[in-house]
Amino acid sequence: MKLIKSILVSGLAIFTLSFTSCKDWLDVNVDPENPTLDAAEYQLELAHCQFYTNSATQFAAWRTGMAMGDWTRYANGGNYWHVSYWNLVEGQVTTPYQWFFVGAGATLKDMYAKAMAAENWHYAGAAQLLLAYGFMLMTDLYGEMPYEDALSANALPVYATGKTIYLGCFERIDEAIELLQKSIDPSLPSLAVGDTWNNGDVQKWVKLAYLLKARWANKLNKKAAGSYKEGKYDVATIKECLEKAMKSNADNTIVDHTDDNSSTHDRLGWDEPVDYSPLYSVCGMNAGYMVTKALYDNLTNFDGLGVEDPRADHIIPWARSRKTAATPAEIKWNENGTWRRSLGVDMLSNINNEGGPLRASWSPEKHFYISSESAARLGDTVYVECTSESKGYAAKKDLLYRRGGVAYDASAESGSFYSRVSSPTYVGTYMEACFIKAEVLFNDGDKTGAFNAYKEGIKAAIELMNEKLKVWVAEDQTLNDCPSFTPMKQADIDNFLANGIGNASTLTLGRIMTQKKLALQFSVEIFNDMRRYDYNPDVFLGWGIAAYHYVSAAAMRAVPEGKLYRRWRQCSHEYNYNSKNLIAIGLEVPGADNSAKNWNTKDDAWTIPVWWDSDQQ
Length: 617
What we know:
Elements: H1 2-13, H2 46-65, E1 71-73, H3 79-84, H4 95-117, H5 121-142, E2 145-146, E3 159-160, H6 162-180, H7 202-218, H8 235-244, E4 253-255, H9 278-284, E5 289-291, H10 293-300, H11 312-315, E6 318-320, E7 339-341, E8 361-363, E9 367-369, E10 401-402, E11 412-413, E12 425-428, H12 430-443, H13 447-475, H14 490-499, H15 509-519, H16 524-532, H17 553-558, H18 572-577, H19 579-585
Antiparallel strand pairs: 1-5, 2-3, 4-12, 6-7, 8-9, 10-11
């Protein structure tokens, strides 16, 4: 890690920011051949750090999300198809690590030091919160990681245990809360100068910090009861933090991405604009991603209650199509029969074993069809991909992806709500606060309080989605023709909340956690929650390890029978350049096979619990 930083920080990663417009986030305002941290003003570093920290988090969310049972890809569709049946591969683990450490870490350290020296407590607090956010992501994914030594001059930084990192992040967030609530000299730069997340609203930063503290404290549910400062499960602190976190959607921290191919692109080799959603980069603009039957069923018939979730039309992709005599009856069509909604790929069936699903092709003569001699595969046209398009970035007609090219409107596909070019990133939200509260109260035996929080979380999630749907159709009224974009009707929302989610007497932990999973689509918190509850299918409704996992020898080596997916292996940079320290920390990791040359490169290192995912004190 330090080696990469040494190479890239000097010439790529650390830039003085000119904030004359949002398009200049990553531009330099000193000699472009020799940018330095010393020349950067702290207030102009924040947007840079927000961009890289958010991108690291969203890339991790996509890569973990593909293994959580809601999404898959066409058969033999590369790394992320493999991940969907737990054939875990090294290719998934590097980018979040690089984008946090190289893109944000050193700059955040510099920003904090400069802001503290200037007594601008708000920038210092934001820097500490982002450092805590990034380091917590690292320990969520990898378990152990250089921490105290990570941003030092040491070219081979020493590793810290997961507990050390976890408690260190709590210390950082407590300091961030204290700093953000202090007054600053009005002559100093206000937080609004550099803040792309909350537009300088300090109270939103404070609420975000309390939500993150509640989120992180709640992850310790496998620990003994006690103080979070000692790494124990602290229900009182969780409840206290939730009281100080978001109280409505107006308090949310949201990155509102735009469809704009600005002149400012990232500096870490992808060369993509800073404006658009990271999930569009890894999913929306790419081919072949499909919803699973588990996700489809949870959206269309949640826990067998028989009422479709109004979000179903917006998460499950649609395709322009035409009915034929062979069209399966279970496919949903819009009112005039011009759009059809995808079905879900049943990962618990033998579909992967049988070479499916295949990606559909399109032609003016055949429309959507499968190019295969296998009769079993011809029906794979029922699966619509979540690929979408962009007007600003790709200069296309609209947000619909046309399989036959721009001239063929009949080949249009809608994409999915969370992975479009201008889909929002939900950094911290009221809906998440509600679901954490519902879980804690339910486990405390307060089913009435838990149900009220659960229902409020679902309502907040629906309303938040509807806000963006209204923006999209206001920007382009032709999109209103596609059911994926048409805003939800209040009558459908009310009916679902009244009849589709159960009531206090029938509330289960499974309903709470599954609705949270639906609301937090593409969040690392789904991976965290599923590990916390050991992937229990009674807690995550409809979930199961893909059937193909048990057929694939590589998948069975990565996650053998009786074990579960618990962490990421370290990326190759660490075991190639810092192996001595990586090997040394293995002596402090329960479950690590230290008889091997490097415990972290063993096939099944993916199954070793990270510290918070264990009862280790």
